[in-house]
Amino acid sequence: MSLDDVVRMIEEGKVKMHEVDELLKDSNLATRARRMYLERRLGVELKAIGSTIIDFNQVYRRNTENTIGAAQIPIGVAGPLLVRGLYANGSYYIPLATTEGALVASVNRGAKVVTENGGARSIVIKDGMARAPLFKLPSAVDSVKFIDWVRLNLSRIKEVAESGSRHLRLNEVQPFMMGNNVWLRLVFNTGDAMGMNMVTIASERVAKWIEDNYQGVRLISVSGNMCVDKKPNAVNFLMGRGKTVVSEAVISRRYLMERFGITPEDVVNVNVRKNLLGSAYAHSYGFNAHFANIITAIFIATGQDVAQVVESSMGTTWAEVNDDGDLYVSVTLPSLEVGTVGGGTGLPTQREALQMLGVQGGGDPPGSNAVKFAEIVAAAVLAGELNLLIAQHRRELGRAHEMLGRAGKQT
């Protein structure tokens, strides 16, 4: 059967686009057939979308559906960035996939400042991926009794939760109640995987066991939005989801004055008035300058779940003048959701980006690569934040975008 025959079958409604992979037994050919159909149907040429090194037989039923090609985003590199963490200890070149001019340059200059002042210290202080099944009880009184029963049966729930994976560990069960609704926020350690799919499967298993063993309870949804996934929220800001990580550095007063003509007090002033006061006035879930810029670029480059930038970019930048008169600066990311196995991390370019950082695949011991990766990401965010605070005090932001983001454009 030729590709023209398959395209004709799609056009005549004899086969659906999602059925072509099974029809041809080759997802690379199926990708071409769907692209040919769209080109004819829409009267466009999809040559660039079709230019890719991806083997769609590796993508089928794993990363996406109805493939027609791939999107290409430029990857720049910032660094070297010196990181001194528990697992990340050395100089790293940060891959950043972005279409925003000046972003890579911003992180690069920040990395230089941090590195020349002794590097960034990073530490993961909490590690747990959450999923929160929602249960309905007959009444609020029954909800209280149900939560008490859950607490008495934690060991059995843990056994059920962990039965499907040797890498999964149930850390804790956090109950929330509203009337006759109960959320059980199940928090897991997922090794080197970001782990959202792992914890969803485990949570479904736990929910079924609960329904089978507690009379009067009914599962409404395996994800009751107290997890919280891909939405800005206070729960993850306070309790964490994924990795809660801090990165900090000290920049000397002399360095700032000689290199930039500014003082630590200047940087602190911008941070307090912009990142803290401005964000508070706006009731923002992010007390920072641009966490999302750096995290998104790293997520795309390394195959993370990009939609989780929503909660991964929540966080706070803190700056103060220390007892020596130098600038202390830190970033705290309460809900950084990253992994080095699973999802998009196995795609060819994303795998290479992780290899650049020395974190591709599973770590030894398990989970160490994901923690190392989180330490590096936080340090990169610190570099980007510090540079933007400096740039805004020096009124360089607009000029940088004119130079690096508007080439060939009319002003």
Q: What does the model show?
A:
The protein is of the alpha+beta class and 411 residues long. It has 3 domains: 23-72, no CATH class; 77-126 and 243-404, Alpha-Beta Complex (3-hydroxy-3-methylglutaryl-coenzyme A Reductase, Chain A, domain 2), CATH 3.90.770.10; 133-221, Hydroxymethylglutaryl-CoA reductase, class I/II, NAD/NADP-binding domain (Alpha-Beta Plaits), CATH 3.30.70.420. It is built from 17 helices and 11 strands. It has helices at 3-11, 20-24, 27-42, 47-50, 56-59, 103-115, 140-152, 154-162, 196-213, 234-239, 253-260, 264-281, 291-302, 309-312, 348-357, 368-393, 397-404, and strands spanning 75-85, 89-97, 120-131, 134-136, 169-178, 181-189, 218-221, 242-251, 286-287, 315-321, 327-336. Helix 1 (3-11) crosses helix 3, helix 8 packs across helix 9 and helix 12 packs across helix 16 (368-393). The chain is globular, with a radius of gyration of 24 Å.
Layout of SSEs?
Elements: H1 3-11, H2 20-24, H3 27-42, H4 47-50, H5 56-59, E1 75-85, E2 89-97, H6 103-115, E3 120-131, E4 134-136, H7 140-152, H8 154-162, E5 169-178, E6 181-189, H9 196-213, E7 218-221, H10 234-239, E8 242-251, H11 253-260, H12 264-281, E9 286-287, H13 291-302, H14 309-312, E10 315-321, E11 327-336, H15 348-357, H16 368-393, H17 397-404
Parallel strand pairs: 1-3, 9-10
Antiparallel strand pairs: 1-2, 3-6, 3-8, 4-6, 4-7, 5-6, 8-11, 10-11
Helix pairs in contact: 1-3, 6-16, 8-9, 12-16, 13-16
